[in-house]
């Protein structure tokens, strides 16, 4: 989209704003109400095998058919199934490999969103997998316990591939999470909650908006783990919800009308201590872990309230006025006891810590139209060169009044300030994606450890996937001290061994 087209779109939205609330009353949601009569689908834990000390998973991207509504077959994509994918799980210190096979009729990729790993294993647009091929990235898990996820990242087609169903969670465990007083039984009191919105046409098929709407497709059907109107039976006093905004454009404002919840983790792992709050805002790609307390025999619903989009033009056109229920929790008449959320620091806490005083470089990023710092994505251009082991501050700002978010590959960052103020408690934990309120500067602290490659870049981009596909993305390489950037080349396509020559780029620097 050109800047002229974008400005025209904004002008149209401004005209809508002048028409006032008579067009779209604030009390009316564009999302359909659902009857909560379907048991929540729980993605299975992915099987794995240990070969020569490496935990090996397998994923196959494939076409399928899903009945989102009874008797209506919707064409979908999924990993190892018709829709979404299994949950991968690994421990800090383990070496993992994932055999990714593409059974689609077009190239795709699998990006390990939030993962610290070599760039040739990252699964971005330079590691596309051709139809019929298998790609085998391998790396060592060396980061805190967290709720990460995986999804395609093919250049110019990420929105389509994620929207059709290619996504799943990747859970990491460590000493702190294993010993924590937190619900731990996967699928019972520790529940993945992948929230997405869709448009289903008259034939029940998935439909993506193609009219340049901002910030992308905002669906009138909301589903959780692929289930419309989902309920989860609760058998314990507390339940841990691993929330993932798996949508391509919509921002959710999640909470409960009748109770508060404890935020225990953000994108990259556990907070220093639980934070009691009423709602948490999640833009596409963001995650949060919350613990909710229930009483015997009661029913409550996770709800997305009207989202605070922070001064965007015509919030109702961006989904800001939509409010709807997402998931019903049904407590049993007798509940097993659950402790208050608590945990001790990991043995790795000191080496994981980020210190602002260590930052020697500050970079500035402005998001405008479909560009970052005035440039659209170029697969052959390296935008930033980072030195391995360095701590940096990235100052990121959206200068247009529309929703944007910012995601950095390879690292988890800490938010130092938002608009000059200390971040709110829900943004004080480790993050890899953050919603950008227009015209506010977000100062992000990050460190680039372990992996260098002058020729294979990582990405930074808006995680509104239409924006990403239309060019709102850049590339950076991490190099050894004194080294210069090389020439960008695509790696890993259909080559199980092609990624292994970078498997040991681990410099051991912390």
Shape: globular
Mind summarizing the main beta sheet?
7 strands, mixed
Percent of residues in helices: under 10%
**Share in β-strands:** 35-45%
Q: How far apart are the first and last residues' alpha carbons, in Å?
A: 41 Å
Oligomeric state of this protein = single chain
Runs with pLDDT <50, length 5+?
A: 1-8, 14-27, 491-510
Summarize model confidence as the mean pLDDT. Answer: 91
Count of runs of 4 or more consecutive helical residues: 5
Q: What is the topology, as strand order, of the major beta sheet?
A: 14-13-12-16-21-18-19
Report Rg: 22 Å
Supply the helix-strand structural class.
Answer: mainly beta
How many β-strand stretches? 33
Helices and strands in order:
Blueprint: H1 3-19, E1 38-39, E2 49-51, E3 54-69, E4 72-79, E5 88-91, E6 95-102, E7 111-113, E8 134-135, E9 138-140, E10 146-151, H2 158-163, E11 168-173, H3 175-179, E12 190-198, E13 221-224, E14 227-228, E15 230-236, E16 238-245, E17 252-256, E18 261-266, E19 269-277, E20 279-282, E21 287-293, E22 299-304, E23 324-336, H4 349-352, E24 359-368, E25 371-372, E26 384-387, E27 391-398, E28 404-408, E29 414-418, E30 433-436, E31 441-447, E32 458-461, H5 465-469, E33 473-479
Parallel strand pairs: 1-15, 3-6, 5-11, 12-16, 15-23, 24-27, 26-33
Antiparallel strand pairs: 2-3, 3-4, 6-8, 6-9, 7-10, 10-11, 12-13, 13-14, 16-21, 17-20, 17-22, 18-19, 18-21, 22-23, 24-25, 27-31, 28-30, 28-32, 29-31, 32-33
């Amino acid at each position: 989209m050109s800047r002229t087209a974008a400005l025209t779109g904004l002008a149209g939205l401004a005209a809508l704003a002048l028409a006032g609330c008579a067009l779209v009353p604030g009390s009316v949601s564009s999302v359909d109400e659902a009857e909560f009569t379907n048991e929540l689908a729980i993605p299975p834990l992915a099987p794995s095998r240990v070969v020569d000390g490496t935990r090996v998973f397998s994923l196959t991207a494939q076409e399928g058919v899903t009945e989102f509504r009874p008797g209506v077959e919707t064409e979908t994509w999924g990993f190892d199934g018709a829709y979404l994918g299994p949950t991968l799980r690994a421990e800090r210190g383990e070496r993992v490999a994932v055999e990714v096979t593409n059974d689609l009729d077009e190239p795709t990729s699998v990006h390990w969103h939030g993962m610290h790993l070599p760039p040739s294993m990252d699964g971005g647009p330079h590691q596309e997998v051709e139809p019929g091929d298998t790609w085998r990235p391998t790396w060592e898990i060396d980061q805190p316990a967290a709720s990460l996820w995986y999804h395609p990242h093919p250049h110019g087609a990420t929105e389509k591939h994620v929207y059709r169903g290619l996504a799943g969670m990747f859970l990491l465990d460590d000493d702190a999470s294993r010993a924590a007083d937190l619900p731990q039984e996967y699928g019972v009191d520790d529940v993945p909650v992948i929230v997405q919105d869709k448009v289903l046409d008259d034939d029940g098929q998935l439909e993506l908006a193609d009219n340049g709407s901002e910030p992308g497709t905002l669906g009138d059907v909301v589903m959780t783990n692929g289930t419309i109107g989902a309920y989860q039976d609760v058998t314990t006093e507390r339940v841990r919800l691993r929330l993932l905004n798996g949508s391509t454009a919509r921002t959710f404002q999640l909470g409960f009308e009748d109770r508060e919840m404890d935020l225990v983790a953000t994108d990259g792992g556990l907070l220093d201590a639980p934070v009691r709050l009423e709602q948490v805002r999640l833009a596409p790609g963001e995650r949060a872990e919350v613990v909710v307390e229930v009483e015997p025999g009661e029913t409550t619903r996770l709800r997305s309230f009207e989202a605070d989009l922070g001064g965007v033009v015509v919030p109702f056109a961006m989904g800001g006025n939509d409010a709807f229920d997402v998931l019903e929790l049904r407590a049993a008449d007798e509940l097993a006891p659950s402790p208050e959320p608590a945990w001790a620091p990991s043995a790795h806490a000191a080496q994981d810590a980020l210190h602002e005083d260590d930052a020697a470089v500050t970079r500035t990023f402005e998001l405008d139209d479909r560009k970052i710092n005035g440039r659209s994505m170029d697969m052959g251009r390296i935008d930033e060169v980072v030195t391995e082991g360095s701590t940096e501050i990235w100052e990121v700002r959206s200068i247009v009044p529309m929703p944007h978010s910012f995601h950095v590959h390879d690292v988890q960052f800490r938010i130092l300030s938002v608009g000059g103020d200390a971040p709110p408690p829900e943004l004080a934990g480790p993050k890899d994606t953050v919603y950008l309120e227009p015209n506010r500067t977000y100062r992000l602290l990050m460190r680039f450890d372990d992996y260098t490659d002058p020729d294979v870049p990582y990405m930074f981009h808006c995680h509104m996937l239409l924006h990403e596909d239309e060019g709102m993305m850049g590339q950076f390489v991490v190099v050894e001290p004194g080294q210069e950037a090389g020439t960008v080349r695509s790696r890993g396509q259909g080559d199980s061994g092609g990624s292994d020559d970078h498997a040991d780029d681990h410099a051991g620097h912390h």
